[in-house]
Here is the input.
Amino acid sequence: MSSRRRVMAVLVGAGLMLASAVASAQALVAFPRSDVEVVTADGRHHRFTVEVATTPEQLAQGLMYRRKMAADAGMLFDFRMERPVSMWMRNTLMPLDMLFIAKDGKVVGFKERAVPGSEEIISAPGMIRAVLELNGGTVARLGLATGDRVVHPIFAAAP
Here is the structure.
């Protein structure tokens, strides 16, 4: 085997090991599942099964590296108290809609169709308790609006 081929074999092997390590690290962060319901001002109910992010590791990873998500799925980021929140789409591979939610469960703002991989800072409009991420286009498809309510135990327990 020529030295060039040996070098290439080593580089390819190292690349595969690195990819495997990254995949393993991603798999280490587990998310509990829960149901949420978005209730619109006109009384329509939309149910989603979500993964709930509460730990620093879960909040940091979010939906990174996911290629797809079921239409009725999402992720609920619980910051445990109202505070200013900024998000981004780094390492996120699919477009997402973000619902910014106050401590009482009221939707106070949106970011629709956030661009995959973008490092643009997406800031919530004021103090919020949580962010619900759904597939891009869900807000428009369901006709969601500010003032809608998200029903989940974290909002019932809000101080």
Summary: Residues 1-30 form one domain.
